[in-house]
Amino acid sequence: MSLLLLVILCILSGLVLIILLALLLLRGKKHLPPPEPPCPPPPPCPPPTYKIPDQFGEADLPTALSVRLMGTPANGDTSSVTTATPSSVIWVNGSNEVLVHLDSTQVKILDGMLLVSVDLECDQIARTPLVCAFALSNASDATGLLATTDEYPRGDGTLAATWGQQLQQAVWSSILSLANDHADERSLFPRGMVATAGKLSLSAGASIALAAAVKGTA
Q1: What pLDDT shows up at residue 49?
Q2: Is the dihedral of CA 194, 196, 200, 202 positive or negative?
Q3: 125 secondary structure, DSSP code
Q4: Which of 55, 61, 76, 98 has the most crowded Cβ, counting Cβ within 10 A?
């Protein structure tokens, strides 16, 4: 009997020890700090803001062009040029001068056509508009940065004969400058412009020469 009692006591002692260990483990778990919540995902990066949008309408394109129509001083000194766009400037070509009313710049954007009107004035001719017409790409015929125009702008014949081609070159240079600045902001290259009813759209992308080289090695 004493041996059986000893065995029973050993079994009971083992059970008590197991129960105590289990209680200690449960107590330890209760005192563990709760797990920290996962870190929230970082907020999405805001889209970049550009000074020159992808599209211009007939209301905002004249301002963008008139800034670029100012030209540079005849003496080449740009230190005196103000940041504000004047209402008018004087263009000089040899002994000829003409007053260009920058604030008169207006545009009409048609499907595949851009019309730009600027008022010019000189001693012999009162203030009158000259209209430059540029045939551009439309939505179904992308031709990059190419354009065609008339030999002279539309308007007063004498004024057009004297200053028409200079005005055409200045307006077209302003349009190309706008396309270049649009691409530079995006660290890309100008690829084209498309004229649709009421809108002029600018596009930019990788350099055509670089894209052709990569395609050739692929």
Answers
A1: 85
A2: negative
A3: S
A4: 61
